[in-house]
Structures are given as structure tokens and as C-alpha cells.
Amino acid sequence: MPAWLEVAIRSICILIGLFIITKLLGKKQLSKLSFFEYIVGITIGDIAGSMSMDLDIRLTEGITSILIWSLFPVVISTISLRSKKFRDFVEGNSTVFIKNGKILEDNLKKEKYTADELLEQLRKKDVFRVADVEFATLEANGDLSILLKRDKQPLTLGDIKPYVPEEKEPQTVIMDGKILDEPLATARLSRGWLKQQLDQMGVAVENVFLAQVDSYGQLTVDLYDDRIQVPAPQQKQLLLASMKKAEADFELFSLQTNDAEAKQMYEQQAKHMQQLIQKLRPFLM
Amino acid sequence: MTIGSQVKQSLANMKAIHATLQELALTSTNEEAQRAFHEAMLQTEQMIAALKGRISTLEREEPQYKGM
């Protein structure tokens, strides 16, 4: 067998093997690489590289090495799942840097952090005044997590409105001009409904790059042709406007009529409508 | 425009509100919103009934504006 053919076969086999190993290691390894996992990854890559090129290394030896290197992290992570103590030992614990608004200098020293580095980390989190921080901790992966003091925390909708209705995740119902049936069913809508909505907008399914339905059944689309303007959904705003108009109508009629009974009826309906608007406003905003 | 036709226009507006509420109640996936829209829809039905009653009274009083 010529050398190049053997290299080719080896490379392909190792590629497939590595692919399976990375699938086995899982997603967690990608997002949260600890130093140990980082080193393991490099080593596996190095072994695989030299195995595919260096014909002096026998395949069995190389594979044994790769298996040990790749199975070790798997074993460690399975044990970590079971035991908290083992986890703390392997992955490390977080260190509190600021507590009750005061910097804990001893912990800084323990993690070999200077004041400058702490300030730098805080600035990366858009905090320029240490006095604004209530609590900060250095996570095991080296990130600094910060809890701001209550009066420095960003404003959320829940702070200004006593009641905010939940909003579910939008569903993507058209992608690359094709209708996706599964998300459509999750939104409890049908192809017929979708076609009708698209007809109302005056676009064909084939011209839609992406379309999403929000939890109120409102459809937003993005077309291939960016020159075409598609109206934004206005159903909710229109409903609120026409409800206000109805309320105004009732009030107007109650002023115009001379019939006492009708006047009372109109006033009552106007009041009802007002209550209805109050009740629905959070959903229609 | 006579009062009769104004009331009829208002009735049409109410019917549109009713239909939109019904549609929103059916297409919303959020249960809370669904319930709110459904209750609102039922309330608008009462308003529509009240308006219809007033329209028939008006038509009896001024038969020349009947119809439409």
C-alpha cells in the first residue's frame, strides 16, 4: 500500500472517530471550557494529527491514547453530576469579591487579583463605580458576576406596571419560502389561516424568506425583495382605537338623546366599554 | 346624517370589534390573553344587543329611515 493511501485512510478514520467523540462529549464542553477541558481538547487534536501523518505510530497505540484522553473528561463529568464535593474539587468554587457593597481584600489576594484587574472586570460589565455594586463573585470559569444595588439596577417593565401579561415565544412558520408545519401546529394555526394572512398582505409564500407568528397570532414577514414594504401588523392597535371610538359614540349618543331610558342605557354601555378598554389595555399594548 | 344612521354605524363598529376579539381569542396562544379576549367578546355581545334594541326603537319612531 502506498504511503499516501495509508495517510488518507488513517485521516478519514480519525476524522470520523473524532466527530463521534465530540458528539459524545456533548454541548456543554463547547460553551463552558474549563482549563482542564481546554488542555484535553488540544492534546486530543495533537494526538490525532500526528497519528494521521506519522506512519511509525501504530493505529492501536494511537487509538488507545485518544480513547483515554477523551473518555477521562466524560468519566469526570459523570461523577461530577452525582457528587457535589467532587464537582467542587474538579471545577472549583466561586469566590466572593464584593459583599454588602464592601470589597473582600483577602479573597482578592487568594485569587491573585489586583484592584486594577477587579476594576477592569467591573468596567467590562458597564460598572464604573464600585459603590454601585452590592455583590460580586468570581465564577469558577473566571467570569465576574455582579449584582447591582437595587437603585442602580436597570428598569424593567414589571417595575412600572403592576401587571404585565406573559408573552410566549414566537413561532417561525415560513423559512426559505417553505411553510413549516410543525411550528404552525404549535401556534395552533393552519395553512389556510397562513395563506389568508399572506393574501391580505399581498405576498406569495415563495417570496417570503422568513415569517414568524407571535403569541397573539400576529404575522410578521421578511421578503426576499427588500424593496417591497410590508405593513406591520396593526390589528391590536386598530382594535384599541375602534374600542375607544365605540366608547366615544356611546357618550355622544347619551348626550344627544332626549329619551331618559336610552340616555341611561348609553351611559351604562359607555362605562362598560371604558372598563373593557382598561382590562384589555395590557394585552393590546 | 340622522341619528339612526349614526347608531347603525356604531353598531357596525361594535360588530367589527366583536369579530376582532373573537379572532384574537382564537389565535392567541397565551391562555390568559385568550380568556381576557373571550370575556371581552362576550361583553361586546351585550353592547351589540343594546344597540340593536335602540335601533329598532328609533325605526319605530321614525319609520322613514327604516332599512339600510
Automatic annotation (TrEMBL), chain A:
Coiled coil: none annotated. Its main location: membrane. The keyword Transmembrane helix applies. Keywords: Cell membrane, Membrane, Transmembrane, Transmembrane helix. GO terms for cellular component: plasma membrane. It is found in: Cell membrane. It is a multi-pass membrane protein. The keyword Cell membrane applies. Belongs to the UPF0702 family. This is Uncharacterized membrane protein YcaP, DUF421 family.
Automatic annotation (TrEMBL), chain B:
InterPro entries: DUF1657. This is DUF1657 domain-containing protein. It comes from Anoxybacillus pushchinoensis.
